[in-house]
Amino acid sequence: MTSRMRHGLAAMVSLVLAVALAGCGDDDEAADGPATLSYAVWDVNQVPVMEELAAAFTKDHPDITVKVQMTPWADYWTKLRAAVSGGEAPDVFWMNGPNFQLYADNKVIAPLDERIKDAKLDLGVYPKALVDLYTFEGKVYGLPKDFDTVGVWYNKELFTAAGVPFPKDGWTWADFKSAAAKLTDPAKGVYGIGAGVGSAQEYYYNTIYQAGGQVISPDGKKSGFDQPASIEGLRFWTDLIKAKQSPDIKTMTDTQPIQLFEAGKLAMYWGGSWNVTEFGKNDYTKTRVDAGPLPMGVKKASIIHGVANVVSAKTKYKNQSWEFVKFLGSQPAAEILGKKGPIPAYNGTQAAWKQANAAFNGQVFLDAVSYAVPYPVSRNTAAWNEAETKHLTRAYNGEVDIETAAKALAAEMNDLLAKE
Amino acid sequence: MTVTESGTTRANPAVVPAPGPRKRRSWRSGTGEALWGYLLIAPTGLGLAVFYLWPVLQTAYFSFTEWGPFGGHEWIGLENYETLAGDEDVLRALGNTVLYTLVGLLGIPVAVVLAALLNRRGLRGVAVYRALFFLPVVTMPVAVAMVWRWMYNGDYGLLNQALSAVGVEGPHWIADPATALYALALVGIWSSIGYNLVIFLAGMQAIPRELYEAAEIDGAGAVAQFRTVTLPMLSPSIFFVSVVSVIGSLQLFDLVYVIGGSGQTARGNPAYPRIQTVVALFYEKAFVTNDRGYAAAIVMALLLLIVALTAVQFRLQKKWVHYA
């Protein structure tokens, strides 16, 4: 009895407090006044440039300060969901493709269409694939911050030693396969490529679209894994493992493909534009590797993904948060970002990024935008991503053939999509 | 002796038929004592209630609901449990968990023997050994897991380097479905041995010397003494340790996450279906694929399993545990 009363009392007190607090943060009052915005990000390497951007924003808007909150990637989404459930979401935060629809659908983030129209912003300054990625049911919810595409990182030394020409624009799957065969040298423990299954973005998503298949139907309702072309895109990888031109996946479970590549055990590594940071720091890869375009199958394709800045639907500072997001999406902000961060999304500002990473052929990743395919997503992307790993691992490990695995995956994915 | 005596008098006032005033005083002092008792356990009790009991009740409730990814839930009755009953993944995870628990129990005899060796009179450097054995217990589990992950590496790991020196080609311990679970169980045993050892040592030191002297006079050697004196006298400690390790093993998560591949480090591990435990499955459902109501049902099933196994252990203890 007493304990229940105490609970009731506590609930009442917190209710009164909440009402009082809500009163303080009245919408009209806070609409344009001074504010301190919280800005949640997950990449510790980008914290300095984010703080620089925040400071640049405060210079123009002296009464608004921005606090950058860094949460490591591993905990970012778990923490953000908890914060949203508890009504403590940051005002502005980073969003990615796989999570976007979940947040938009649940009205956790605010649509920006009206704001964009009022401010007469032209979304044509960003790659279309990115604007589409952050459009849900016809409404735009985020301004693209940066983007990344996929290319082939290759070891120049190993290529030269094997007498294989470097990857160049227009090379095909057949060229790639013959290169992989020539570069494989069992005596030295060197493989042409590592067919990783743990991550889709750099591997089979690209080949599925290159083969003319699809991961998910454009309306996001049906799996594409059972299409014959998609299966060809997957077979591309399982064939490489079968031919021993890639290490088996037991080896790649113990030592990730990127570690093997950095040890000179893989001649090629399918990776993203984001790898410039890692390969630029590593003493082995710094001078030995470079980037080339992905080979083409039936057509060219490279998965494009990018982070967007979004505004919490529940923020007390709706106008100020929008002002900040607008600034982050602007050309001056993109120029600051390009010097120290990933490829900025704003068209025409990518030169700064290329210059900052001049050790590698960064143009490859910029050229890929013209044939890029958006990262496939739906409302609960994570659910079928788990199913992908589960089914495809068995095929990559040779327990079932790839067609059986792909069909089983499509069936499970369709069930999951039906539940969304 | 006196403690027990006064204890009985107080707990059972009827034993001393006393006149009014005395009775009243004893009643008053009784409640006073109880009040103090409750006050003293209040901090722990409150903590347990708030951080353990309340979440358990909440989880039980949520297992009958479907959760939105940002909170908000809808009552769906037994639907989660119906799905659970036909879910092969759950069944497989249960099987893995039980097997892991059984293998983990092998750590107990090892710890008993080690404790007996450390307990011998005249052994030098006992403190050093104890510290060494206890070290894994106070080391961060994730750090432990990372180091073992390196050692188990099939191509470059320490373990296989050592094996190749004697001409044996070791497997990919963590990625081979045939070895992965046992490799994890070994890490589990290794990291809990120190804790078990301390309990067994304490238990052994409480065994009266006279019993050993009597056994010696009867002509029992070291091994016979261990069998007829140490083991029976130690059985309450062994019982305690086995209950605690079964409960701990059934909740295995960190090793699977860091070494086995439910985290990012080894995604796509072909052995993963063979090492995925119930808690790892729970984690994936709750925090990766956003199916929290179902995840709650999975842990409720685990809770029932733990309660059942513990009850069985308590039932069986009458057969082999001797309380002196």
Automatic annotation (TrEMBL), chain B:
It holds the Pfam family BPD_transp_1. This is Sugar ABC transporter permease. Belongs to the binding-protein-dependent transport system permease family. GO terms for biological process: transmembrane transport. Residues 1-11 have a biased composition (Polar residues). GO terms for cellular component: plasma membrane. Residues 1-27 are annotated as: Disordered. Keywords: Cell membrane, Membrane, Transmembrane, Transmembrane helix, Transport. It is found in: Cell membrane. It comes from Virgisporangium aliadipatigenens. SUPFAM superfamilies: MetI-like. Residues 93-315 form the ABC transmembrane type-1 domain. The chain crosses the membrane at residues 34-54, 98-119, 131-151, 180-202, 237-260, 293-312. It is a multi-pass membrane protein.
